[in-house]
């Protein structure tokens, strides 16, 4: 729905209160990017058991590509465990409120995008 620069801006706005955080993007393998940035740990979020299966497979694959990089999994809070970008976009598409699901500036961007693609 959004370009990479737009998503980076949304993330920067959403995390501006966090000190020592850098928002970046890359193309290619995550382990190569981690090596380039001298990172030793990948932090991955989990919502449901289905996420864990896919993330565990990815962690094992990354380990075969770079044995020095570890993966740590963090579970989301219960209140957001059901949430996905597809669900948020569908709610907005059919006129539902997403204000309680995403940061205010992201909701505005989604509503604007939906208005352009689905004018009334």
Describe this structure in words.
The protein has 120 residues and is mainly alpha-helical. The protein has five helices and two strands, in the order ααβαβαα. Strand 1 (41-46), helix 3 (49-65) and strand 2 form a beta-alpha-beta unit. The radius of gyration is 17 Å and the shape is globular. The mean pLDDT is 93.
Concise overview:
By secondary structure, the chain is mainly α. The chain is built from five helices and two strands; from the N terminus they run ααβαβαα.
Oligomer: single chain
What is the share of helical residues?
40-55%
Report the principal-axis shape.
globular
* CA(first)-CA(last) distance: 19 Å
Estimated share of beta-strand residues: 5-15%
Report the sheet with the most strands, covering strand number, pairing sense and barrel closure: 2 strands, parallel
- How many individual β-strands? 2
Average pLDDT, all residues: 93
Show unreliable segments: none
Class per helix and strand makeup: mainly alpha
* Largest sheet: spatial strand order: 1-2
Q: Using only CA atoms, what is the Rg?
A: 17 Å
> Which sequence of SSEs, written as H and E, runs from N to C?
HHEHEHH
């Amino acid at each position: 729905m959004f370009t990479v620069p737009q998503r980076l801006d949304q993330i920067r706005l959403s995390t501006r209160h966090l000190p020592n955080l850098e928002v970046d993007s890359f193309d290619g393998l995550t382990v190569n990017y981690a090596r380039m940035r001298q990172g030793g740990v990948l932090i991955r979020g989990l919502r449901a058991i289905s996420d864990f299966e896919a993330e565990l497979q990815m962690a094992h694959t990354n380990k075969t590509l770079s044995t020095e990089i570890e993966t740590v999994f963090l579970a989301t809070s219960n209140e957001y465990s059901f949430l996905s970008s597809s669900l948020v976009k569908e709610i907005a598409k059919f006129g539902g409120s997403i204000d309680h699901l995403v940061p205010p500036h992201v909701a505005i961007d989604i509503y604007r995008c939906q208005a352009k693609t689905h004018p009334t």
